[in-house]
Amino acid sequence: MTEEMPEPIKVRTPEEAIECLKVLVHKKVIAFDTETTGLSRTDDRAIILALSDGKSRWCVWDRVIPMFKDLLENPELKLIAHNANYDAWMMLNVGIDLNKYMIRDHYRLYDTMVMHALMRDCDPHDLKSLTKNYLDIDMIPFKAVFGSQMRKRALYEILLDNDNEDIVADYASLDAYATYKLFMLFRSELNRQKIEDSPCGFNTMWDYYIKTELPFTKVLWELERNGIFIDTGKLVEVAPKLEARMMKILKWFIRDTGDMTINLSSVHHLRKLFFDELGRQPKSLTEKGEPQLNQATLKYWAKRGCKRSKLLLEYRDLNKRVGTYISNLLRKVSNSSGKIHATFKQTGARTGRLSSSDPHLQNQPPYIRDVFVPAPDTKLLASDYAQLEMRILAHFSRDETLCEAITSGKDVHSMTAAKMFRVEYDDIIKARHMDDNDEDLTDEQKTLLKHRKAAKAINFGLMYGQGSGKLADTLGCDREEAKGLIRQYFKTFPKVTGYFKHAIEAARGTGYCTTLLGRRRQVDQLFSMNDTEVSQGERLVKNSPIQGTAADITKMAMIKLYEDPVITASGIKMLIQVHDEVVFQVPKELEYNEQINNRIQRIMSHPFEFDLAVPLETSSKYGDNWLECK
Q: What is the pLDDT of residues 61-75, one digit of tens each?
């Protein structure tokens, strides 16, 4: 960066705020950043507001932040931020709602973190790294500036201390200034990145950003603000029962070993129990060469009758339920709303898929989902895409046999097995039905179910670039048998093989693979001298376009749902997005409203202005909690 950096301008008095506003009120684009009392999106707030127009940089103190309300809430003003929804929360918590006057399909909050993820998905996206790499400006970490004070004082006391005024002004305003400069650079770069043959008419990655990620930032903001209620009473009620069972298991180990000091969370104790006393042979070792007691090892021994393994697995599961899920959820309930407001991470996965934290919604097990409940007089509705990845693979490969297996309306895994092993589809379905009803099966029927299990494992495994080793572990067979199954699959669906080969060749030519809409993922591993890394790169090329297109589909559907005037007027809210599922809160009187239900289904099944080679299908179910919706 060659131009000279402007000095920070301090805004502490109403008079200084008026002078700042005289400049900014004529601007069309402003970057902003906040310094806050903490990291909680619901319970913390902005105490310093940093602003920049790319020429100047201002640091606004808490007492005059309200004077900037009209400026920042103006829907005609474009705003730039880094990790934008976090700063939007911090402003909301001081009474400034950046989306207050925004109509549903108007988007003005640009996020440089999301923009960079589209440019270089494999690089860090934090502001300090980007400022150094693109602007050649060294940002000093907060702890390096205020570390000694942080051990003695609260964050807000440090930031608002008059003695720190100059340091705070420089530190805070630099964030906004750098964000503005990065936006200009990233916009130019995204415009340079061309998209070939986009079915949506996107010519550049900037087009992709404007049509998908920019509106999706606002959609996620709505999800975060809506939040979801937690039945805390049920959580509090179940915890003692789980802890009692854990104590019972611990007492069993004490009786079995005669050791009153045993600690089931101690690696040292557990190694002594299994490897020294029982003489078990380790299935795997740590990096330091120590024997591992991981889940796979314990399951292997438990299947062979080892009671210690079985009970330790149960103890670990119960401990995880109490610590990771029950206690964690209780801590995440907002003091102000009584809900949890998860953080949805738009850059959480390199494929474009969402991730979440506080809490991690993608990882909530079925047994805990019954505590996620709707508001009074409403129901939860979960709409889930059916076999989304397989449908995307069918579209990319245009394999007639795979398309037929999907569009026939039959069970796709049974149909796959029937074609792979040349057996009758109806015979597989009959065997499944008998197995579901615990009826006795013939050897032939058991073989049919084994065929279906193999077909299902390959169907899903292909989406993740799974090789013969992983398939062998999944099916409990040897690697040669797994290789034979994969060969049989590709023989049955020859165009799938052709698609994968073409995708890998294309990625070797460009250095990246793309989703259906053109989102890129760098695959540097393809150019490695290490065969293992090359194989990893090939798996990524098989997996990422499918997972990324699934993300494109879900995002575009959610944007359409958010913008739809009928759904909005009906009081329906989106609360959660996990994997291929969207969870809504619906007024009770609309539960059996066919027009509304069909409208949601139609929008999700047709997220683009074009259709895939095979139709998208969703399944939906209402419930009084999230578990009932499955």
A: 999 999 999 999 999
